[in-house]
Design brief:
The complex is a heterodimer. Helix content of chain A is about 40%, strand content about 25%. By secondary structure, chain A is α+β, with helices and mostly antiparallel strands. Chain A folds into 2 domains: about 55 residues; about 280 residues, no CATH class. In chain A, helix 1 packs across helix 3. The longest helix of chain B has 26 residues. Chain B is mostly helical. Chain B has 2 domains: about 110 residues, Rna Polymerase Sigma Factor, Chain: A; about 70 residues, Arc Repressor Mutant, subunit A. The chains are: A alpha+beta, B mainly alpha. Chains A and B meet through helix 1, helix 3, helix 4 and helix 6 of A and helix 2, helix 3, helix 6, helix 7 and helix 9 of B.
Protein backbone atom coordinates (compact mmCIF):
# COMPACT_ATOMS: atom_id res chain seq x y z
CA UNK A 1 0.00 0.00 0.00
CA UNK A 2 1.38 3.41 -0.92
CA UNK A 3 1.22 6.52 1.30
CA UNK A 4 -0.48 9.78 0.45
CA UNK A 5 1.27 13.13 0.35
CA UNK A 6 -0.05 14.15 3.79
CA UNK A 7 1.57 11.22 5.57
CA UNK A 8 4.79 11.62 3.61
CA UNK A 9 4.88 15.32 4.45
CA UNK A 10 4.39 14.52 8.13
CA UNK A 11 7.17 11.96 7.80
CA UNK A 12 9.40 14.60 6.26
CA UNK A 13 8.59 17.00 9.08
CA UNK A 14 9.29 14.42 11.76
CA UNK A 15 5.70 14.69 12.99
CA UNK A 16 4.98 10.98 13.12
CA UNK A 17 5.32 8.43 15.89
CA UNK A 18 8.21 6.01 15.99
CA UNK A 19 6.19 3.02 14.77
CA UNK A 20 4.64 4.78 11.82
CA UNK A 21 7.96 6.23 10.84
CA UNK A 22 9.55 2.78 10.70
CA UNK A 23 6.68 1.39 8.61
CA UNK A 24 7.13 4.19 6.11
CA UNK A 25 10.87 3.67 5.94
CA UNK A 26 10.37 -0.02 5.22
CA UNK A 27 7.90 0.78 2.52
CA UNK A 28 10.04 3.50 0.95
CA UNK A 29 12.98 1.13 0.64
CA UNK A 30 11.08 -0.89 -1.94
CA UNK A 31 8.66 1.61 -3.52
CA UNK A 32 9.98 3.82 -6.31
CA UNK A 33 6.77 5.93 -6.77
CA UNK A 34 6.71 6.81 -3.05
CA UNK A 35 10.40 7.68 -3.15
CA UNK A 36 9.68 10.04 -6.04
CA UNK A 37 6.72 11.55 -4.26
CA UNK A 38 8.85 12.17 -1.18
CA UNK A 39 11.61 13.70 -3.28
CA UNK A 40 9.08 16.06 -4.87
CA UNK A 41 7.82 17.11 -1.45
CA UNK A 42 11.35 17.69 -0.26
CA UNK A 43 12.14 19.90 -3.25
CA UNK A 44 8.97 21.92 -2.74
CA UNK A 45 9.77 22.30 0.91
CA UNK A 46 13.27 23.54 0.32
CA UNK A 47 12.07 26.06 -2.24
CA UNK A 48 9.41 27.35 0.15
CA UNK A 49 11.89 27.51 3.00
CA UNK A 50 14.41 29.39 0.94
CA UNK A 51 11.78 31.94 -0.04
CA UNK A 52 10.33 32.28 3.45
CA UNK A 53 13.83 32.67 4.85
CA UNK A 54 14.39 35.74 2.68
CA UNK A 55 10.96 37.04 3.52
CA UNK A 56 11.57 36.63 7.24
CA UNK A 57 14.96 38.26 6.92
CA UNK A 58 13.35 41.35 5.41
CA UNK A 59 10.95 41.48 8.33
CA UNK A 60 13.63 41.04 10.97
CA UNK A 61 15.32 44.16 9.61
CA UNK A 62 12.21 46.27 10.03
CA UNK A 63 12.32 48.63 12.97
CA UNK A 64 9.34 49.12 15.18
CA UNK A 65 9.13 52.21 17.30
CA UNK A 66 7.93 51.08 20.71
CA UNK A 67 8.07 54.60 22.20
CA UNK A 68 5.59 55.90 19.69
CA UNK A 69 3.45 52.81 20.01
CA UNK A 70 3.43 53.16 23.78
CA UNK A 71 2.29 56.77 23.57
CA UNK A 72 -0.51 55.67 21.28
CA UNK A 73 -1.45 52.82 23.57
CA UNK A 74 -1.57 55.08 26.59
CA UNK A 75 -3.69 57.73 24.98
CA UNK A 76 -6.17 55.20 23.62
CA UNK A 77 -6.47 52.55 26.23
CA UNK A 78 -5.23 53.49 29.61
CA UNK A 79 -7.43 56.50 30.10
CA UNK A 80 -10.87 55.65 31.28
CA UNK A 81 -12.71 55.63 28.03
CA UNK A 82 -15.35 53.38 26.67
CA UNK A 83 -17.91 53.55 24.02
CA UNK A 84 -21.26 54.17 25.41
CA UNK A 85 -23.86 51.50 25.41
CA UNK A 86 -27.19 52.57 26.76
CA UNK A 87 -27.87 51.85 30.37
CA UNK A 88 -25.73 48.82 30.87
CA UNK A 89 -22.52 50.66 30.24
CA UNK A 90 -23.55 53.31 32.64
CA UNK A 91 -24.27 50.64 35.11
CA UNK A 92 -20.70 49.44 34.65
CA UNK A 93 -19.38 52.94 34.88
CA UNK A 94 -21.17 53.35 38.12
CA UNK A 95 -19.86 50.08 39.42
CA UNK A 96 -16.43 51.34 38.49
CA UNK A 97 -16.84 54.44 40.61
CA UNK A 98 -18.20 52.55 43.52
CA UNK A 99 -15.88 49.65 42.84
CA UNK A 100 -12.86 51.88 42.78
CA UNK A 101 -14.04 53.74 45.83
CA UNK A 102 -14.76 50.62 47.80
CA UNK A 103 -11.52 49.00 46.74
CA UNK A 104 -9.72 52.04 48.01
CA UNK A 105 -11.78 51.93 51.15
CA UNK A 106 -11.53 48.24 51.89
CA UNK A 107 -8.02 47.51 50.66
CA UNK A 108 -6.32 50.62 51.85
CA UNK A 109 -7.90 50.40 55.19
CA UNK A 110 -11.48 51.36 55.81
CA UNK A 111 -10.18 54.74 56.65
CA UNK A 112 -12.33 57.14 54.80
CA UNK A 113 -15.53 57.27 56.74
CA UNK A 114 -16.58 59.38 59.60
CA UNK A 115 -17.74 57.41 62.62
CA UNK A 116 -21.40 57.99 63.30
CA UNK A 117 -22.90 56.46 66.40
CA UNK A 118 -25.70 54.21 65.46
CA UNK A 119 -28.61 54.80 67.77
CA UNK A 120 -30.19 51.49 66.96
CA UNK A 121 -27.21 49.22 67.21
CA UNK A 122 -24.98 49.97 70.14
CA UNK A 123 -22.72 47.20 68.95
CA UNK A 124 -21.75 48.83 65.75
CA UNK A 125 -19.91 51.87 64.61
CA UNK A 126 -21.06 53.13 61.27
CA UNK A 127 -18.73 54.98 59.00
CA UNK A 128 -20.22 57.14 56.28
CA UNK A 129 -18.56 59.42 53.82
CA UNK A 130 -18.72 63.13 54.47
CA UNK A 131 -16.01 64.45 52.21
CA UNK A 132 -14.34 63.44 49.01
CA UNK A 133 -10.73 63.68 48.02
CA UNK A 134 -8.87 62.29 45.06
CA UNK A 135 -5.72 60.25 45.24
CA UNK A 136 -3.51 59.57 42.25
CA UNK A 137 -3.71 55.87 41.66
CA UNK A 138 -3.91 54.83 38.06
CA UNK A 139 -4.42 51.54 36.32
CA UNK A 140 -0.69 51.01 35.99
CA UNK A 141 -0.30 51.31 39.74
CA UNK A 142 -3.09 48.81 40.15
CA UNK A 143 -1.46 46.52 37.65
CA UNK A 144 1.90 46.78 39.36
CA UNK A 145 0.30 46.21 42.72
CA UNK A 146 -1.49 43.10 41.53
CA UNK A 147 1.79 41.88 40.06
CA UNK A 148 3.53 42.28 43.37
CA UNK A 149 0.70 40.53 45.17
CA UNK A 150 0.98 37.68 42.69
CA UNK A 151 4.70 37.42 43.29
CA UNK A 152 4.24 37.54 47.05
CA UNK A 153 1.20 35.43 47.78
CA UNK A 154 -0.43 34.56 44.46
CA UNK A 155 -4.00 35.76 44.20
CA UNK A 156 -5.47 37.37 47.27
CA UNK A 157 -8.53 35.36 48.01
CA UNK A 158 -10.66 37.09 50.59
CA UNK A 159 -12.40 33.83 51.29
CA UNK A 160 -9.10 32.48 52.56
CA UNK A 161 -9.02 35.19 55.18
CA UNK A 162 -12.48 34.78 56.56
CA UNK A 163 -16.09 34.34 55.64
CA UNK A 164 -17.87 36.50 53.09
CA UNK A 165 -21.58 36.77 52.86
CA UNK A 166 -23.31 38.83 50.19
CA UNK A 167 -26.94 39.52 50.93
CA UNK A 168 -29.29 40.25 48.05
CA UNK A 169 -27.32 40.19 44.82
CA UNK A 170 -27.61 43.46 42.92
CA UNK A 171 -30.37 43.51 40.40
CA UNK A 172 -30.88 45.73 37.39
CA UNK A 173 -34.35 46.96 36.48
CA UNK A 174 -35.78 49.41 33.97
CA UNK A 175 -38.13 51.90 35.58
CA UNK A 176 -40.10 55.01 34.60
CA UNK A 177 -39.20 58.62 35.42
CA UNK A 178 -41.97 58.74 38.03
CA UNK A 179 -40.72 55.58 39.70
CA UNK A 180 -37.21 56.98 39.73
CA UNK A 181 -38.36 60.17 41.42
CA UNK A 182 -40.38 58.34 44.05
CA UNK A 183 -37.73 55.88 45.22
CA UNK A 184 -38.01 55.71 48.99
CA UNK A 185 -34.37 55.03 49.81
CA UNK A 186 -32.88 58.25 48.50
CA UNK A 187 -33.92 61.71 47.31
CA UNK A 188 -33.50 61.59 43.53
CA UNK A 189 -32.82 64.85 41.70
CA UNK A 190 -32.82 65.16 37.92
CA UNK A 191 -31.63 67.78 35.43
CA UNK A 192 -34.18 69.89 33.62
CA UNK A 193 -33.42 72.57 30.99
CA UNK A 194 -30.22 71.01 29.64
CA UNK A 195 -31.91 67.83 28.55
CA UNK A 196 -35.19 69.24 27.19
CA UNK A 197 -36.31 67.15 24.22
CA UNK A 198 -33.74 64.42 24.76
CA UNK A 199 -34.59 60.75 24.79
CA UNK A 200 -34.47 59.33 28.30
CA UNK A 201 -34.24 55.96 30.05
CA UNK A 202 -34.31 55.20 33.75
CA UNK A 203 -33.12 52.23 35.66
CA UNK A 204 -32.53 51.06 39.18
CA UNK A 205 -29.81 48.83 40.53
CA UNK A 206 -30.69 47.39 43.90
CA UNK A 207 -28.27 47.72 46.74
CA UNK A 208 -26.35 45.03 48.50
CA UNK A 209 -24.60 44.33 51.77
CA UNK A 210 -21.36 42.44 52.02
CA UNK A 211 -20.45 40.95 55.39
CA UNK A 212 -16.92 39.92 56.03
CA UNK A 213 -15.88 37.96 59.09
CA UNK A 214 -12.16 38.07 59.53
CA UNK A 215 -9.82 35.23 60.44
CA UNK A 216 -6.97 37.25 61.86
CA UNK A 217 -4.45 34.44 61.85
CA UNK A 218 -4.89 33.83 58.16
CA UNK A 219 -4.97 37.53 57.34
CA UNK A 220 -1.72 38.02 59.22
CA UNK A 221 -0.15 35.09 57.40
CA UNK A 222 -0.92 36.92 54.22
CA UNK A 223 0.48 40.21 55.50
CA UNK A 224 3.66 38.37 56.49
CA UNK A 225 3.88 36.80 53.06
CA UNK A 226 3.64 40.29 51.60
CA UNK A 227 6.65 41.28 53.68
CA UNK A 228 4.82 43.21 56.37
CA UNK A 229 5.73 43.00 60.05
CA UNK A 230 2.96 45.28 61.23
CA UNK A 231 0.16 42.83 61.88
CA UNK A 232 -3.54 43.18 62.56
CA UNK A 233 -4.63 43.28 66.21
CA UNK A 234 -5.84 40.00 67.66
CA UNK A 235 -9.11 41.45 68.95
CA UNK A 236 -10.60 41.81 65.51
CA UNK A 237 -10.52 38.05 65.03
CA UNK A 238 -13.90 36.64 64.11
CA UNK A 239 -15.52 40.09 64.05
CA UNK A 240 -17.89 40.93 61.25
CA UNK A 241 -17.37 44.01 59.11
CA UNK A 242 -19.96 44.96 56.60
CA UNK A 243 -20.19 47.26 53.64
CA UNK A 244 -23.62 48.36 52.46
CA UNK A 245 -24.17 49.83 49.07
CA UNK A 246 -27.59 51.35 48.62
CA UNK A 247 -29.98 51.34 45.67
CA UNK A 248 -28.81 53.43 42.80
CA UNK A 249 -30.91 55.29 40.29
CA UNK A 250 -29.59 55.97 36.85
CA UNK A 251 -30.91 58.18 34.11
CA UNK A 252 -29.58 58.10 30.54
CA UNK A 253 -30.32 61.03 28.27
CA UNK A 254 -29.38 61.26 24.63
CA UNK A 255 -30.00 63.10 21.39
CA UNK A 256 -28.30 62.59 18.02
CA UNK A 257 -25.01 64.10 19.05
CA UNK A 258 -24.78 63.96 22.77
CA UNK A 259 -25.36 61.83 25.76
CA UNK A 260 -25.57 62.39 29.46
CA UNK A 261 -25.74 59.87 32.27
CA UNK A 262 -26.90 60.85 35.73
CA UNK A 263 -26.67 58.47 38.61
CA UNK A 264 -27.18 58.72 42.32
CA UNK A 265 -26.92 56.51 45.33
CA UNK A 266 -26.52 56.79 49.07
CA UNK A 267 -22.90 56.87 50.11
CA UNK A 268 -21.84 53.35 51.02
CA UNK A 269 -21.63 52.54 54.70
CA UNK A 270 -19.08 50.47 56.51
CA UNK A 271 -20.14 48.87 59.77
CA UNK A 272 -17.44 47.85 62.14
CA UNK A 273 -17.82 46.14 65.54
CA UNK A 274 -17.78 48.77 68.25
CA UNK A 275 -14.70 47.64 70.11
CA UNK A 276 -12.52 47.49 67.02
CA UNK A 277 -9.88 50.16 66.73
CA UNK A 278 -10.20 51.00 63.08
CA UNK A 279 -7.18 53.27 63.25
CA UNK A 280 -5.00 50.37 64.26
CA UNK A 281 -6.34 48.27 61.38
CA UNK A 282 -5.71 51.13 59.04
CA UNK A 283 -2.14 51.58 60.20
CA UNK A 284 -1.39 47.89 59.74
CA UNK A 285 -2.73 47.98 56.22
CA UNK A 286 -0.88 51.19 55.41
CA UNK A 287 2.33 49.51 56.44
CA UNK A 288 2.14 46.76 53.84
CA UNK A 289 5.47 47.16 52.04
CA UNK A 290 4.16 46.53 48.55
CA UNK A 291 1.85 49.55 48.55
CA UNK A 292 3.42 52.06 46.19
CA UNK A 293 5.33 54.65 48.23
CA UNK A 294 3.59 57.49 46.41
CA UNK A 295 0.25 56.07 47.48
CA UNK A 296 1.31 55.72 51.12
CA UNK A 297 2.64 59.22 51.10
CA UNK A 298 -0.62 60.55 49.73
CA UNK A 299 -2.69 58.63 52.24
CA UNK A 300 -0.59 59.78 55.15
CA UNK A 301 -0.80 63.29 53.76
CA UNK A 302 -4.57 63.45 53.91
CA UNK A 303 -5.03 65.49 57.05
CA UNK A 304 -8.52 64.37 57.87
CA UNK A 305 -8.42 60.78 56.70
CA UNK A 306 -11.33 59.54 58.79
CA UNK A 307 -13.77 61.95 57.21
CA UNK A 308 -12.81 61.54 53.61
CA UNK A 309 -14.02 59.39 50.76
CA UNK A 310 -11.04 58.69 48.58
CA UNK A 311 -11.52 58.69 44.83
CA UNK A 312 -8.75 57.13 42.77
CA UNK A 313 -7.64 59.57 40.09
CA UNK A 314 -6.70 57.24 37.30
CA UNK A 315 -5.34 59.63 34.69
CA UNK A 316 -4.11 62.61 36.67
CA UNK A 317 -6.87 64.88 35.41
CA UNK A 318 -9.09 64.97 38.46
CA UNK A 319 -9.88 68.32 40.07
CA UNK A 320 -11.59 68.97 43.34
CA UNK A 321 -14.40 71.44 42.75
CA UNK A 322 -17.31 72.97 44.55
CA UNK A 323 -20.72 71.82 43.31
CA UNK A 324 -23.70 73.78 44.61
CA UNK A 325 -21.56 74.61 47.61
CA UNK A 326 -20.79 70.93 48.22
CA UNK A 327 -17.53 69.16 47.67
CA UNK A 328 -17.04 67.33 44.41
CA UNK A 329 -14.57 65.97 41.93
CA UNK A 330 -14.41 66.57 38.20
CA UNK A 331 -12.53 64.24 35.88
CA UNK A 332 -12.08 64.21 32.15
CA UNK A 333 -10.08 62.08 29.80
CA UNK A 334 -6.97 63.40 28.12
CA UNK A 335 -8.55 64.64 24.91
CA UNK A 336 -11.70 66.07 26.50
CA UNK A 337 -14.04 63.59 24.82
CA UNK A 338 -15.46 62.47 28.11
CA UNK A 339 -16.14 64.19 31.41
CA UNK A 340 -17.49 63.13 34.76
CA UNK A 341 -18.57 65.14 37.78
CA UNK A 342 -19.20 63.54 41.13
CA UNK A 343 -20.29 65.19 44.33
CA UNK A 344 -21.51 64.34 47.76
CA UNK A 345 -24.85 65.89 48.65
CA UNK A 346 -25.92 65.18 52.25
CA UNK A 347 -24.87 61.56 52.22
CA UNK A 348 -25.94 60.99 48.62
CA UNK A 349 -23.37 60.49 45.88
CA UNK A 350 -24.43 62.07 42.60
CA UNK A 351 -22.55 61.57 39.37
CA UNK A 352 -22.94 63.13 35.91
CA UNK A 353 -21.12 61.58 32.96
CA UNK A 354 -21.22 62.84 29.43
CA UNK A 355 -19.51 63.03 26.09
CA UNK A 356 -17.46 66.25 25.74
CA UNK A 357 -18.74 67.28 29.14
CA UNK A 358 -16.84 70.33 30.34
CA UNK A 359 -16.68 71.40 33.95
CA UNK A 360 -18.85 74.45 33.24
CA UNK A 361 -21.52 72.39 31.52
CA UNK A 362 -21.46 69.82 34.30
CA UNK A 363 -21.84 72.52 36.94
CA UNK A 364 -24.82 74.00 35.09
CA UNK A 365 -26.51 70.63 34.98
CA UNK A 366 -25.71 70.08 38.66
CA UNK A 367 -27.32 73.40 39.52
CA UNK A 368 -30.54 72.23 37.85
CA UNK A 369 -30.45 69.31 40.26
CA UNK A 370 -30.47 71.51 43.35
CA UNK B 1 11.58 32.55 15.82
CA UNK B 2 10.69 29.96 18.41
CA UNK B 3 14.21 30.19 19.79
CA UNK B 4 14.18 33.96 19.85
CA UNK B 5 10.90 33.80 21.69
CA UNK B 6 12.21 31.54 24.42
CA UNK B 7 15.27 33.64 25.01
CA UNK B 8 13.06 36.64 25.57
CA UNK B 9 11.09 35.10 28.36
CA UNK B 10 11.73 36.81 31.61
CA UNK B 11 10.28 35.74 34.87
CA UNK B 12 10.88 38.74 37.08
CA UNK B 13 7.95 40.97 37.60
CA UNK B 14 7.96 43.86 35.22
CA UNK B 15 5.73 46.86 34.94
CA UNK B 16 3.27 46.87 32.09
CA UNK B 17 5.21 49.61 30.38
CA UNK B 18 8.43 47.59 30.56
CA UNK B 19 6.68 44.56 29.15
CA UNK B 20 5.31 46.70 26.37
CA UNK B 21 8.73 48.01 25.39
CA UNK B 22 10.38 44.61 25.72
CA UNK B 23 7.92 42.69 23.64
CA UNK B 24 6.51 45.26 21.21
CA UNK B 25 9.08 44.69 18.43
CA UNK B 26 8.74 40.94 18.84
CA UNK B 27 4.94 41.05 18.62
CA UNK B 28 5.08 43.40 15.61
CA UNK B 29 7.49 41.16 13.78
CA UNK B 30 5.36 38.11 14.44
CA UNK B 31 2.29 39.94 13.10
CA UNK B 32 4.13 41.47 10.16
CA UNK B 33 5.44 38.05 9.27
CA UNK B 34 1.96 36.56 9.32
CA UNK B 35 -0.12 39.35 7.75
CA UNK B 36 2.55 40.81 5.49
CA UNK B 37 1.71 44.45 6.10
CA UNK B 38 3.64 46.66 8.46
CA UNK B 39 1.07 49.27 9.43
CA UNK B 40 -1.55 46.60 9.87
CA UNK B 41 0.87 44.67 12.07
CA UNK B 42 1.38 47.76 14.22
CA UNK B 43 -2.36 48.24 14.62
CA UNK B 44 -2.81 44.63 15.58
CA UNK B 45 0.06 44.81 18.06
CA UNK B 46 -1.92 47.47 19.91
CA UNK B 47 -4.80 45.05 20.06
CA UNK B 48 -2.58 42.26 21.37
CA UNK B 49 -1.26 44.46 24.17
CA UNK B 50 -4.75 45.64 24.98
CA UNK B 51 -5.64 42.01 25.59
CA UNK B 52 -2.64 41.67 27.86
CA UNK B 53 -3.68 44.83 29.67
CA UNK B 54 -7.30 43.88 30.16
CA UNK B 55 -7.04 40.14 30.67
CA UNK B 56 -3.50 39.33 31.71
CA UNK B 57 -2.72 35.61 31.92
CA UNK B 58 -2.58 34.03 35.37
CA UNK B 59 0.92 32.78 34.68
CA UNK B 60 3.42 35.53 33.97
CA UNK B 61 6.43 33.29 33.53
CA UNK B 62 5.82 33.11 29.80
CA UNK B 63 4.45 36.42 28.60
CA UNK B 64 6.34 36.05 25.33
CA UNK B 65 4.64 32.77 24.58
CA UNK B 66 1.28 34.16 25.59
CA UNK B 67 1.70 37.23 23.38
CA UNK B 68 2.86 35.10 20.47
CA UNK B 69 -0.29 33.02 20.77
CA UNK B 70 -2.54 36.07 20.93
CA UNK B 71 -0.76 37.66 17.96
CA UNK B 72 -1.00 34.49 15.91
CA UNK B 73 -4.71 34.16 16.56
CA UNK B 74 -5.33 37.81 15.74
CA UNK B 75 -3.40 37.42 12.50
CA UNK B 76 -5.20 34.28 11.49
CA UNK B 77 -8.63 35.72 12.25
CA UNK B 78 -7.73 38.80 10.31
CA UNK B 79 -6.51 36.85 7.30
CA UNK B 80 -9.65 34.79 7.26
CA UNK B 81 -12.01 37.73 7.45
CA UNK B 82 -9.81 39.63 5.01
CA UNK B 83 -10.19 36.81 2.50
CA UNK B 84 -13.95 36.63 2.84
CA UNK B 85 -14.26 40.37 2.57
CA UNK B 86 -12.04 40.34 -0.45
CA UNK B 87 -14.50 38.11 -2.18
CA UNK B 88 -17.32 40.52 -1.50
CA UNK B 89 -15.52 43.73 -2.27
CA UNK B 90 -12.94 42.50 -4.65
CA UNK B 91 -12.60 45.73 -6.51
CA UNK B 92 -12.23 48.08 -3.56
CA UNK B 93 -9.89 45.68 -1.94
CA UNK B 94 -7.65 45.52 -4.99
CA UNK B 95 -7.40 49.27 -5.05
CA UNK B 96 -6.57 49.41 -1.39
CA UNK B 97 -3.99 46.67 -1.79
CA UNK B 98 -2.42 48.47 -4.72
CA UNK B 99 -2.00 51.56 -2.57
CA UNK B 100 -0.60 49.53 0.26
CA UNK B 101 1.87 47.75 -1.96
CA UNK B 102 3.17 50.92 -3.50
CA UNK B 103 3.62 52.44 -0.07
CA UNK B 104 5.35 49.39 1.20
CA UNK B 105 7.69 49.27 -1.72
CA UNK B 106 9.45 52.19 -0.20
CA UNK B 107 10.00 50.14 2.91
CA UNK B 108 10.70 46.81 1.33
CA UNK B 109 13.30 47.43 -1.32
CA UNK B 110 14.24 43.85 -1.62
CA UNK B 111 12.76 42.42 -4.80
CA UNK B 112 12.82 38.89 -3.48
CA UNK B 113 10.90 39.77 -0.36
CA UNK B 114 8.26 41.47 -2.49
CA UNK B 115 8.04 38.41 -4.65
CA UNK B 116 7.45 36.11 -1.71
CA UNK B 117 4.89 38.48 -0.29
CA UNK B 118 3.01 38.48 -3.52
CA UNK B 119 2.97 34.66 -3.58
CA UNK B 120 1.72 34.52 0.00
CA UNK B 121 -1.08 36.93 -0.86
CA UNK B 122 -2.37 34.53 -3.46
CA UNK B 123 -2.65 31.66 -1.00
CA UNK B 124 -5.68 31.08 1.19
CA UNK B 125 -5.52 32.27 4.78
CA UNK B 126 -5.23 28.71 6.00
CA UNK B 127 -2.48 27.64 3.56
CA UNK B 128 -0.51 30.76 4.19
CA UNK B 129 -0.74 30.56 7.96
CA UNK B 130 0.21 26.86 7.94
CA UNK B 131 3.31 27.49 5.85
CA UNK B 132 4.47 30.47 7.87
CA UNK B 133 3.89 28.82 11.22
CA UNK B 134 5.61 25.65 10.09
CA UNK B 135 8.60 27.62 8.90
CA UNK B 136 8.88 29.48 12.20
CA UNK B 137 9.07 26.22 14.10
CA UNK B 138 5.50 25.44 15.15
CA UNK B 139 4.59 21.77 15.69
CA UNK B 140 1.71 20.13 13.84
CA UNK B 141 -0.46 20.20 16.94
CA UNK B 142 0.08 23.94 17.43
CA UNK B 143 -0.69 24.65 13.78
CA UNK B 144 -3.87 22.59 14.10
CA UNK B 145 -4.93 24.58 17.17
CA UNK B 146 -4.44 27.99 15.54
CA UNK B 147 -6.23 27.10 12.32
CA UNK B 148 -8.88 24.97 13.98
CA UNK B 149 -8.29 21.89 11.86
CA UNK B 150 -7.62 18.25 12.63
CA UNK B 151 -3.99 17.52 13.39
CA UNK B 152 -4.10 14.64 10.90
CA UNK B 153 -4.84 17.04 8.06
CA UNK B 154 -1.85 19.30 8.69
CA UNK B 155 0.54 17.19 6.59
CA UNK B 156 -1.82 17.17 3.63
CA UNK B 157 -2.49 20.90 3.86
CA UNK B 158 1.24 21.65 4.07
CA UNK B 159 2.09 19.39 1.15
CA UNK B 160 -0.57 21.00 -1.04
CA UNK B 161 0.23 24.53 0.09
CA UNK B 162 3.88 24.04 -0.73
CA UNK B 163 2.95 22.68 -4.13
CA UNK B 164 0.74 25.72 -4.80
CA UNK B 165 3.50 27.99 -3.59
CA UNK B 166 5.93 26.43 -6.04
CA UNK B 167 3.48 26.71 -8.96
CA UNK B 168 2.82 30.40 -8.31
CA UNK B 169 6.55 30.96 -7.87
CA UNK B 170 7.31 29.34 -11.23
CA UNK B 171 4.46 31.25 -12.91
CA UNK B 172 5.84 34.56 -11.64
CA UNK B 173 9.34 33.64 -12.75
CA UNK B 174 8.01 32.52 -16.13
CA UNK B 175 6.16 35.81 -16.53
CA UNK B 176 9.31 37.77 -15.86
CA UNK B 177 11.65 36.07 -18.25
Amino acid sequence: MCYDEGILQAYLDGALGEEERKEIENHLASCIPCQQKLEELRKNQSLVHECLGKYQCGIEKTNFDSEKAWAHFQSHHTAEKENRKEGIRMNNKFKKWIGAASVAVILIGSLSFSPVRSAAAELLTIFRAEKVQTIAFNEHDMYDLSQKIRDGVGEIDLEEMGKINVSNETEYKDITREEALSVSTLPVKLPDESIKGWKDDFSKVSGTTIDFTLDVEKANEMLTALGSNHLLPQEIDNKTFSVSIGDSIQACYSNENDYLDVMQTKAPEIRVPKDVDIIEVRDALLDIPILPPSLKKQLRGVTDLEHTLLIPDTNGNAREVSVNGKQGVFMEDNNGSYGSLMWLDDGVIRVINGGKLTLQKALNIASEME
Amino acid sequence: MAVELKSMIKTESQSFEQIFHNYYPFVCRQLYYLVGNQSLAEDMAQEAFLKLYQLPPADFSNIGGWLAKVATNLAYNHLRSEKSRQKREDHCEMERMAKMISFEEVVVRNQEVREVRSILKQLSARDRTCLLLKFSGYQYQEIATVTGMNVNSVGTILARAQDKFKKIYLEQRGGES
